[in-house]
Specification:
The complex is a heterodimer of chains A (331) and B (347).
Chain A: H1 2-11, H2 13-32, H3 40-65, H4 73-90, H5 96-119, H6 125-144, H7 151-154, H8 156-163, E1 165-166, E2 169-170, H9 171-189, H10 191-201, H11 203-208, H12 213-239, H13 250-260, H14 272-291, H15 296-328
Antiparallel strand pairs in A: 1-2
Helix pairs in contact in A: 2-14, 2-15, 3-9, 3-12, 3-13, 3-14, 4-5, 4-6, 4-12, 5-6, 5-12, 9-10, 10-12, 13-14
Chain B: E1 8-10, E2 16-18, H1 26-30, H2 33-51, H3 58-64, H4 66-83, H5 91-107, H6 112-136, H7 142-161, E3 166-167, H8 171-178, E4 180-181, E5 184-185, H9 186-204, H10 206-216, H11 218-223, H12 228-254, E6 256-257, H13 265-275, H14 287-306, H15 311-336, H16 339-346
Antiparallel strand pairs in B: 1-2, 3-6, 4-5
Helix pairs in contact in B: 2-14, 4-9, 4-12, 4-13, 4-14, 5-6, 5-7, 5-12, 6-7, 6-12, 8-12, 9-10, 13-14, 14-15
Chain lengths: 331, 347
């Protein structure tokens, strides 16, 4: 029994350490803010704010697990959302689901282009997506033609996507939960999900063992595109404005959430629950700092420092666990 | 370096000699990446000429370099970082932080020279911190470390200056970016010397060869006695130092400093290095290529500006150019392996 618990503990060390950090942080903020942090309204707010980031982080996780990276996610979000909202503006009153579908379709095509560049043309992911980031962002500006699409032009039905509730929970949170359940099922229970891990561990051996690595790579980038299209729509819906520079630099937030959640940039490791925790931790930081009256000028530096410290702490813990495991081994 | 063809010759008594240096071949000489860049540069210039007949005078062409010199300063040390198979996305934030420190020191009443040294020291320290973290915690990838230091450095700049800016620098400081010898801007002269220095460092010193070795395999380099940790720290420190130099140039050009300067520069800088043939997976690249790539991207932007192309179009063109150029080797491979292409080329 004891050894089972020990094993459970050591195999989930990353997630457990994240949870501990989160609990400590939550208690600290709760204490400092005079009890304003752990209230139902604030927690609901916080999760609604984090939902978009969390959804993106799932898509990014697929890509990073294969050993790649996608810098164009922010641009795809803006691109999809911009096209969707332009259609909405010109045809007021079309159902929200169509707007979302258009954005996801744009994301699908953009992601597929990334996938082809990476898998078929063998361009390094960071370079390929750096290029497409510029291209998609440029096209987004062209679609926007320098103007903003404001709340009034979006219409109430569309905006209710972000404000409405389902079973008393904000729609954004519901969507995020659905995405996470699907992703967890996909990564652990389906053959394709396991193939993604295999490609990430070693593309060569995956190919030798009969996996069509090109297709797997194309799949993950396309999935990320679709997810980014969805997330982009939710983002503009939440903030009530779509413009050319929506989500500029968002890719770094998403990558940070993945890394905090224990997804290794070298590929092969990363789990859905970890990414969820990483996204929530970032969301907590964003939510908590104004509550305890940290000046907005300090927030960036503190956020960066916490990311850095937590990944360093994580490697130290990991190193310790590995050394202990080595010592325990009988030679 | 690409695959080198080693020539083995077996002499009559059975001893084998392996040709020490590659035999000169005209085909291989012209198949170098740098020729591609030269062609691109010519194409860009023809394009610019057709855009504006006034383009072709020396003053214009030399002045145009000012637009991209601030990025160019960091491309060479970035090439070294990429050569090691690492990446540094914090350079733009280091630029912002060193410029901020320079502004604050100057505002506090110290002479400009002291302020400039403060900027250089700041950049050096920032770069060294990146390098030291990477060396101390080897499991961390450089992408992640510099991603978080990117946020931290710019965050510190924000803490120091908030939304203010510092200006009112002495007149001679402005001439760093504006001054010229004859027709040649000071900045361009500096870049030429910098390129020569880095070319010497990379191609003619032990340090440079060790960088290549580390880029090909860190483990192999370590086992053959290369002090890999030290080299990594030095390379990152260099990137920091030259980011500070770029910051001084940028501050001189804009005649003020703000914490949000140079936002997004890191990606442009990496794009220039990659277009120049420096591989982000390490071990590949030359300074000549990087220099040519700076000119190609720089003049392309300038020319598109001449045509009154909007900045959106410029973004799209630069992005497409980046992808197209790096796609060519992959295209050759994937098309070259198809059946129809083999049949076509067999005869």
């Amino acid at each position: 029994m004891m050894s089972k618990i020990k094993k459970l503990f050591s195999s989930n060390i990353r997630e457990i350490s994240l949870v501990i950090v989160m609990i400590v942080l939550a208690l600290f903020v709760q204490f400092r803010s005079g009890g304003n942090f752990l209230t139902p309204e604030n927690i609901s707010d916080m999760f609604a704010e984090t939902a978009v980031l969390g959804i993106c982080a799932v898509g990014m996780m697929f890509v990073i697990i294969t050993g790649g990276i996608d810098l164009s996610i922010g641009a795809i979000m803006a691109f999809g959302a911009m096209v969707g909202c332009t259609v909405l503006k010109n045809n007021p009153g079309i159902p929200t689901i169509i707007v979302v579908a258009i954005a996801m379709a744009v994301g699908l095509v953009s992601g597929l282009v990334n996938g082809v560049l990476v898998s078929k043309l063998k361009i390094l992911p960071i370079i390929a997506t750096l290029g497409t980031m510029n291209i998609y962002r440029g096209i987004t500006y062209l679609v926007a033609q320098g103007s903003w699409i404001k709340q009034q032009e979006m219409g109430k039905t569309f905006l209710s996507l972000a404000t409405g509730k389902f079973l008393g929970i904000n729609n954004l949170i519901v969507i995020a939960i659905i995405v996470y359940i699907l992703a967890a099922f996909f990564m652990t229970k389906t053959r394709t999900g396991r193939k993604i891990y295999a490609v990430g561990n070693s593309e060569e051996s995956a190919r030798v063992s009969g996996i069509k690595t090109d297709n797997t790579l194309m799949l993950v980038y396309t999935l990320l595109g679709v997810i980014a299209g969805l997330a982009g729509t939710l983002y503009v819906c939440k903030y009530g404005v779509a413009q050319g520079e929506t989500c500029t630099g968002y890719e770094m937030n998403v990558i940070a959430a993945c890394v905090l959640g224990g997804v290794s940039i070298t590929g092969g490791t990363g789990r859905v629950p970890g990414v969820l925790l990483g996204a929530i931790l970032l969301g907590m930081l964003n939510n908590a700092m104004p509550l305890i009256h940290i000046s907005s000028f300090w927030q960036d530096a503190i956020r960066g420092l916490i990311i850095l410290l937590s990944i360093i702490a994580n490697t130290l813990i990991q190193r310790n666990v590995e050394i202990k495991a080595l010592r325990r081994r009988n030679i | 370096m690409a695959k080198e063809i080693v020539r083995q010759t077996v002499s009559e008594d059975g001893t084998r000699t392996i040709a020490a240096s590659r035999e000169f071949s005209l085909k291989r000489f012209f198949l170098q990446w740098e020729w591609m860049l030269v062609l691109m540069l010519i194409a860009v210039n023809i394009f610019n000429l057709s855009a504006s007949p006034n383009y072709a005078n020396a003053r214009n062409i030399l002045n145009a370099t000012r637009d991209f010199l601030d990025k160019a300063v960091v491309v060479f040390p970035m090439a070294f970082v990429l050569m090691l198979g690492e990446i540094d996305i914090s350079v733009a934030s280091i630029m912002a932080l060193s410029a901020t420190i320079m502004g604050v020191v100057y505002r506090a009443g110290y002479p400009m020279a002291v302020a400039m040294s403060a900027a250089l020291i700041t950049g050096t320290i920032c770069g060294m911190i990146n390098g030291l973290i990477l060396v101390k915690f080897r499991q961390l990838s450089s992408m992640i470390v510099t991603l978080s230091t990117q946020i931290i450095y710019r965050g510190i700049a924000l803490i120091i200056l908030e939304t203010n800016s510092v200006g009112g620098f002495p007149k001679w400081f402005g001439s760093i970016a504006a001054g010229k010898v004859g027709l040649v801007p000071y900045g361009l002269i500096f870049i030429v010397f910098e390129a020569l220095f880095f070319a010497y460092l990379l191609h003619y010193t032990k340090f440079g060869r060790r960088c290549y070795a580390m880029g090909n395999s860190v483990t192999a380099a370590q086992y053959s006695g290369v002090r890999t940790d030290r080299i990594k720290v030095i390379v990152y420190t260099m990137a920091g130092l030259f980011s500070a130099v770029a910051a001084i140039y940028l501050a001189s050009k804009m005649s003020s400093v703000r914490p949000d300067i140079a936002k997004g520069y890191e990606l442009d800088i990496i794009a220039m290095a990659v277009l120049g043939g420096v591989s982000t997976s390490g071990g590949k690249g030359r300074i000549l290529g990087a220099s040519l790539a700076i000119l190609v991207i720089g003049y392309l932007r300038y020319g598109l500006g001449l045509m009154n192309a909007s900045s959106q179009i410029i973004m799209i063109v630069v992005g497409a150019l980046l992808i197209l150029t790096v796609a060519i080797p992959g295209l050759k491979e994937s098309v070259g392996n198809t059946n129809w292409f083999r049949k076509l080329t067999r005869h």
